[in-house]
Amino acid sequence: MNSVQKADAIRALKSQRPISMLTAYDYPTGRLLDEAGVDVILVGDSLGMVMLGFPDTTHVTLDMMVHHTAAVARGVKNSLIIGDMPIHSYDTPEQAVASARQLVEAGADVVKLEGGINQVDKVRAIVAAGIPVIGHHGMLPQRVLEEGGYKKKGKTAKESDAILEGALALQEAGCFAIVLESVVPELAKKITHTLEIPTIGIGCKGKDQEQTCDGEVAVITDVVGSYPWFVPPFATQRADVAGEISRAVRGYINSI
Questions:
Q1: Domain spanning 3-218: which superfamily?
Q2: Residue tagged active-site, from 181, 186, 210, 244
Q3: Which residues make up each annotated binding site for 3-methyl-2-oxobutanoate?
Q4: pLDDT digits (tens, 9 = 90+) for 114-168
């Protein structure tokens, strides 16, 4: 399948079954996730923190994203690959198209950008260039410095209405799916039921881990426990890779 067909296949999963998405930043991780059968692999700008040691995603450049996208793509045969568009790589529609093309040339099937109504012209331009787009709405990590931290979204009626309006605008502009981040469960559920395209949640689950979106995305280091210095409160750690690395290294040191 080509990239458009892959994106259409993910879109068609809405209301059929949950969509699985995980991040990857290198060849072995991308290959392992692909072989395990994950639907979508996101080469996220979260690599700035969990791979490169920056305090947030605002330090990530397009060159960094191209480099890591190419590495992941070398290991993936089946999963849809998303190339995340870093901050200031899509300030204008023209720049957005040029940046998206670089990520696709590196191996991405589709691209992702953050924001709602203000990004509609960029989404339309990228889609018109033949590149599928997945939106990202709710809490926007690239605006963490402007907002003074990571905050749950949709707590007020005004904010809730604005997020829903933005999600509908992204759908109308041509997005085949939307990531919802740190949106209150009631709003996430409302958006999911309102949109015709899938929603992929992160930090949007309800009580008792009730799923409120059509799918779920998680950062791979949170899932496997390879970044112990910070784990988001909504993440579920399913392994202790960091502990195993420490154990193996101590064993190596003691064996010399």
A1: Phosphoenolpyruvate-binding domains (3.20.20.60)
A2: 181
A3: 45-46, 84, 112
A4: 999 999 999 999 999 999 999 999 999 999 888 888 889 999 999 999 999 999 9
